[in-house]
Amino acid sequence: SQTIHQWPATLVQPVGSPLSLECTVEGTSNPNLYWYRQAAGRGLQLLFYSVGIGQISSEVPQNLSASRPQDRQFILSSKKLLLSDSGFYLCAYILGSGQYFGPGTRLTVL
Amino acid sequence: GENVEQHPSTLSVQEGDSAVIKCTYSDSASNYFPWYKQELGKGPQLIIDIRSNVGEKKDQRIAVTLNKTAKHFSLHITETQPEDSAVYFCAINAGGTSYGKLTFGQGTILTVHP
Questions:
Q1: Chain-chain contact of B107 with A42 (C-beta, under 8 angstroms)
Q2: Which of A79, B26, B64, B104 could form a disulfide with A44 if both were Cys (CB 3.0 to 4.6 A apart)?
Q3: What are the backbone angles phi and psi of residue A83, rounded to the nearest 5°?
Q4: B114 Cβ under 8 Å from any chain A Cβ
Q5: Residue A32 CB-density burial (10 A; 0-12 exposed, 13-18 middle, 19+ buried)
């Protein structure tokens, strides 16, 4: 069976610090992977998606970047965090036609 | 661009009653319509989905109906229970396949009172 992991679960970072969030998927190969951000518990916004290693598509201009160094690993990064980067970050993968989400990372930028 | 409107934003029902949440969309190329349930502090969970070649789909107490002509689809929960309390999101795959990208509604906070 497939599982999706996100690390860390929660993170508190100062403004201007770097960021690295990790997402890994088990039990499937070459999945489409997605990063979403959710503000205030409502409305998921697609940030990036990837259809393969090294292939990243950005949906909105922002202070963040994504990378896919391995088939089942998707990383969300920033060189300098802004207050507006606070939120709940969710990774997702596709299985069949369904899209399945990880447990999320709660990021607070102070 | 793609747009999904979800109503109501909050819904309060008594245990045992039915709950209905509706979404309307504008992209006629959309052909996949999932519904997600999100509990506090957790990732959204896919609870039911429907494709455009089907008008209705049911799974125990939940059902989804689709009216492709009118561009709206609805989630129906019957015999609601307190554990159904959560935020529910609809979504569409605007533009057809588009690499599986989903556009989400703004969510409905459902509260089921015992």
A1: yes
A2: B104
A3: -55, -40
A4: no
A5: middle
C-alpha span between A66 and B43 (Å, rounded) = 20
Which positions in chain A touch B106 (Cβ < 8 Å)? 42-43
Cβ–Cβ < 8 Å for A56, A39: no
The amino acid present at A12, given as its one-letter code, is V
B83 touches chain A (CB under 8 A): no
Rounded Cα gap, residues B98 and B93, in angstroms = 7
Question: Quick one: closest CA in A to B88, which residue?
Answer: A42
Judged by CB atoms closer than 8 Å, whether chains meet at A51 and B99 is answered as yes
The pLDDT tens digits of the residues spanning A52-107 come to: 999 999 888 778 999 999 999 999 999 999 999 999 999 999 887 789 999 999 99
**Residue A9 CB contacts under 8 Å (≥ 6 apart), including other chains:** A103, A104, A105, A106
Give the type of residue at A46: L
Q: Which two tokens stand for residue B98?
A: 């588009």
Q: Could you tell me the CA-to-CA distances from A28 to A12, A24, A63, B45 in Å, in that order? A: 31, 11, 30, 19
Q: Give A14's contacts (C-beta < 8 A, 6+ positions apart).
A: A81, A109, A110
Residue A43 to chain B, least CA–CA distance (Å): 5
Question: Cβ–Cβ contacts within 10 Å for residue B85, how many?
Answer: 19
Tokens (6 digits) for B12: 């309060």
